Inverse folding.
């Protein structure tokens, strides 16, 4: 597996060059991705302002979570959109994945690099903008530590999302159909993590803190950014676990992908 | 007339074969419904009513939304546009009869299947587990059913209008993508229209997006049913006229450009 | 000296909902370096399954396969560096980018040193007439142009073995000829081993020194094209243009077709010689013209597919 990373960067650059040949198309898609974030955040802001608070959190604090979740989603999808169920299923059905396997490169690297989509950066940027705006409304004093925590949240949540996508793609090799229920874990998990975790029942909390830790990745560092104490059972030092847990989940996702590919090679399409 | 009914049946049968997608869809609906329910429970913990809506209204909104989601945002949204670009659609336009009604019949068959296999179970299960404001009388249920079916019709009409952009441009998705956030918000899929600030709400209440979600929600939660359904019917008429204009223009274009 | 490709007892069983299906039921053959092998068989015979096992993208259910001294499914990436693959219908190139960029990407992917890449590319461009196409995006190329480009990209890293899947399908006569010339020269000058999967029998007769025919997962023929003719093509056809339209009886030959004054007679070459038959003909009838036709390879292969055993 000792491939030079340069090859994948070149592949990605080639994909981006291909996209750049239609700049208007790209601009529209990127803008649309960003506007959707703005609209969702605005909607939630309207809702929360009507109610004043949720779970003891002020509207601006909740909107910070929304921003972090969108930023993570955008970041993960730049690389991970190639692994979404319908895309992988199409690769298998059309026989394109066979061609990928004849290349002297890692199939994951090849697929991801070939389909890098910059338009999701629009979502990530809008999410980051929402973070800044919400933090301002919440009166957050940006120290380097707090900025680091926000970045940690986005990176770890993006890693978890990418891990889910890898595992789902691996499963698609086995089922061929493509498990769209996996989208629930990605988009549902991020949506759930956009609200403070204490409002959920214990089952949901456990699932998204420890099993699919996108909630852990967003919530715990956010506590640090907002200078809040977590509820009992979620002490502040958990923030040191965020990165290891996310990394472990990412590795598990990679394992699921490799298992899926092994199955594909074993049984053919 | 019989051919339209046949199309309805064909559409219904076609959609019921997508069992795996149905299972995945139900899981998605259930999950988002549960999360939104938790959010509203938390929101209403310290207040009884906001903007005239209580927690039961809010939960009913959530589950009608989840139930009707796949009807409004039908997964086969671009099929017509693709058929137009590939040239297959020409066959449809050349057949005798009314292409709009034919497409509507087939589409309604599919959305009826979704109503039966997704909307109904979602509402029933949610209604049993939670305290929702769903109609208890036969009359009320009839109004709700009518409202849901009309929402399906309006959904088709929107998809037809968006899909017909394919007659004029190969990039039919871009315009939709730009409009989508507005549609998403103004139809009430982000938050209930009832929570909009007064000025915005007044504006949005008169839009053709209301029939998609808010109308059935209002019928369910005991608002003036006849009024809501009449509003849906009025918009169906307007959108139908728009559809006819589009078809005529498309027909002229095909004659000139040859498809 | 071990062969470049060694296949022994190769088997593949697929598990379908209808039960296990044996797509490849025990195949043995060896291909030495530098051979040009045609690989033919009816659809569903197991051709693509064996090629997939040879290229490492499918795991065999049994038997042994070795390509370039490597076990394909175990050392997929190492083997990938030494082999080239061209699929007739699908492209290995980058659709939206100018052709030149596809070649550069291939060069980097297969770690071809820049100087070598440029030199090789210049030669390939010349031979395949790709010069004016370099700036054109791949999606704008015609099928013939694209196929030449695919071949150039596949051989740019100087692979030891080249797997081709229907490379001439859909091409016009001129394009087919230039592709065939290129492959012939490649095999001759660089010693590249070529495995050509094809339905086009012209490809086989003009390019392949050896033909492997597979049907229902089993090898039914492995030998030269000439021997195929010799083993299965034991009949020849005498085509006669008579001076007058009259009925003709020719002992030793079977009339198979008649159109006006032209008659076709089929005879078994080991029963009567062409010379004898012609002598008999000329003795009894006035002949304006005559020719001898060799057995059509298409007929031969069709007969093999149909399961006719060799006479």
């Amino acid at each position: 597996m000792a491939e030079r990373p340069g090859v994948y960067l070149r592949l990605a650059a080639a994909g981006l060059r291909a996209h750049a040949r239609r700049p208007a198309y790209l601009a529209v898609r990127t803008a649309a991705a960003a506007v959707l974030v703005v609209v969702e955040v605005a909607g939630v802001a309207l809702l929360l302002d009507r109610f004043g608070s949720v779970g003891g959190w002020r509207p601006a604090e909740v909107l910070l979570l929304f921003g972090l979740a969108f930023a993570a989603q955008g970041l993960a999808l730049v690389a991970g959109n190639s692994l979404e169920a319908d895309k992988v299923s199409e690769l298998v059905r059309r026989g394109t994945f066979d061609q990928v396997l004849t290349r002297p490169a890692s199939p994951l690297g090849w697929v991801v690099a070939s389909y890098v989509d910059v338009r999701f950066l629009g979502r990530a940027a809008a999410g980051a903008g929402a973070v800044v705006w919400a933090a301002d409304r919440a009166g957050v004093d940006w120290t380097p530590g707090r900025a680091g925590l926000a970045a940690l949240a986005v990176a770890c949540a993006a890693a978890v999302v990418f891990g889910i996508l890898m595992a789902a793609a691996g499963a698609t090799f086995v089922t061929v159909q493509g498990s769209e229920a996996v989208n629930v874990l990605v988009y549902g998990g991020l949506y759930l993590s956009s609200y403070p975790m204490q409002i959920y029942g214990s089952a949901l909390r456990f699932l998204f803190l420890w099993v699919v830790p996108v909630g852990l990745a967003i919530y715990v560092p956010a506590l640090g950014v907002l200078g809040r104490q977590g509820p009992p059972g979620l002490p502040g030092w958990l923030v040191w676990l965020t990165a290891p847990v996310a990394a472990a989940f990412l590795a598990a996702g990679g394992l699921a992908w490799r298992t899926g590919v092994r199955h594909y090679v074993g049984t053919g399409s | 007339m019989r051919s339209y009914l046949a199309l309805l049946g064909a559409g219904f049968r076609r959609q019921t074969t997508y069992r795996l997608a149905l299972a995945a869809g139900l899981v998605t609906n259930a999950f988002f419904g549960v999360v939104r329910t938790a959010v509203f429970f938390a929101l209403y913990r310290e207040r009884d009513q906001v903007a005239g809506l209580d927690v039961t209204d809010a939960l009913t909104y959530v589950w009608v939304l989840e139930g009707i989601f796949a009807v409004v945002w039908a997964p086969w949204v671009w099929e017509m546009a693709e058929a137009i670009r590939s040239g297959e659609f020409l066959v449809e336009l050349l057949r005798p009869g009314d292409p709009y009604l034919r497409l509507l019949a087939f589409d309604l068959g599919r959305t009826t299947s979704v109503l039966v296999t997704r909307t109904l179970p979602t509402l029933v299960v949610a209604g049993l587990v939670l305290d929702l404001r769903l109609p208890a009388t036969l009359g009320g249920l009839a109004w709700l059913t009518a409202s849901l079916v009309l929402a399906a019709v309006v959904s088709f009409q929107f998809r037809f209008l968006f899909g017909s952009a394919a007659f004029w441009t190969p990039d039919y998705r871009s315009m939709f993508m730009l409009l989508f956030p507005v549609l998403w918000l103004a139809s009430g899929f982000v938050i209930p229209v009832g929570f909009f600030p007064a000025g915005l709400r007044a504006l949005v209440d008169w839009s053709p997006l209301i029939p998609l979600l808010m109308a059935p929600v209002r019928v369910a939660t005991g608002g003036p049913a006849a009024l809501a359904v009449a509003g849906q019917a009025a918009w169906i008429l307007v959108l139908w006229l728009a559809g006819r204009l589009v078809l005529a223009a498309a027909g002229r274009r095909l004659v000139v450009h040859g498809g | 000296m071990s062969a470049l490709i060694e296949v022994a007892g190769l088997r593949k069983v697929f598990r379908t909902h209808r039960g296990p299906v044996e797509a490849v039921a025990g195949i043995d053959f060896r291909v030495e370096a530098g051979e040009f092998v045609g690989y033919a068989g009816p659809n569903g015979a197991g051709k693509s399954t064996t090629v997939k096992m040879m290229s490492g993208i499918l795991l065999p259910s049994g038997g042994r396969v070795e390509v370039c001294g490597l076990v394909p499914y175990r050392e997929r990436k190492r083997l990938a560096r030494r082999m080239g693959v061209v699929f007739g219908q699908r492209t290995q190139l980058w659709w939206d980018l100018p052709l030149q960029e596809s070649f550069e990407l291939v060069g980097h992917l297969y770690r071809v040193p820049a100087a070598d890449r440029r030199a090789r590319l210049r030669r390939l461009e010349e031979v395949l007439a790709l010069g004016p196409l370099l700036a054109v995006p791949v999606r704008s190329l015609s099928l013939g142009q694209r196929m030449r480009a695919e071949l150039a990209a596949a051989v740019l890293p100087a692979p030891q073995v080249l797997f081709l899947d229907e490379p001439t399908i859909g091409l016009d006569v001129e394009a087919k000829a230039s592709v065939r010339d290129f492959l012939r020269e490649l095999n001759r000058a660089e010693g590249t081993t070529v495995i050509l999967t094809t339905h086009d029998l012209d490809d086989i007769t003009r390019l392949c020194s050896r033909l492997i025919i597979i049907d229902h997962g089993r090898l039914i023929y492995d030998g030269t094209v000439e021997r195929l003719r010799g083993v299965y093509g034991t009949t020849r056809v005498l085509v006669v243009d008579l001076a007058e339209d009259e009925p003709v009886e020719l002992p030793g030959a079977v009339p198979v077709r008649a159109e006006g004054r032209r008659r076709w007679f089929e005879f078994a070459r080991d029963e009567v010689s062409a010379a004898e038959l012609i002598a008999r003909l000329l003795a009894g009838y006035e002949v304006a013209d005559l020719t001898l036709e060799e057995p059509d390879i298409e007929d031969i292969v069709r007969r093999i597919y149909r399961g006719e055993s060799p006479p």
Notes: The longest helix of chain C spans residues 173-190. The first strand of chain C starts at residue 5 and ends at 16. The radius of gyration of chain C is 24 Å. Chain C is about 35% helix and 30% strand.
